[in-house]
Write a structure and sequence with these properties.
The longest helix has 11 residues, at about 45-55. Residues about 35-50 and about 55-80 have low confidence and may be disordered. It is built from 1 helix and 6 strands. The protein has a 6-stranded antiparallel β-sheet with strand order 4-3-2-1-6-5, covered by helices on one side. It is mainly β. It has one domain (about 1-80). About 15% of the residues lie in helices and about 50% in strands.
Length: about 80
């Protein structure tokens, strides 16, 4: 059972990219989507996982800066 959320990455040019934030376990978070067309799994740094974990624990939408991109968490669902 893997928890995941839809999210939209907004790059520095304002382009929106539909992504998937996956929470595999207490230590593993990654993003999947076309924004990383050369590598669809992006391992976040420890400092980023803290931000992502806090966002994922909230039911409301929240936007946080990660590097040059904004992460908007929309909905929560489960991947079997």
């Amino acid at each position: 059972l893997v928890e995941a959320k839809d999210l939209i990455l907004v790059d520095h040019e304002g382009q929106e990219w539909n992504m998937l934030l996956v929470h595999q376990n207490e230590e593993v978070y990654f993003l999947k989507g076309h924004w990383y067309d050369y590598a669809d799994v992006y391992n976040l740094a420890v400092s980023d996982t803290v931000v992502i974990e806090r966002i994922m624990k909230q039911e409301q939408n929240e936007i946080k800066d990660i590097g040059k991109a904004e992460v908007a968490v929309n909905t929560e669902y489960v991947i079997l």
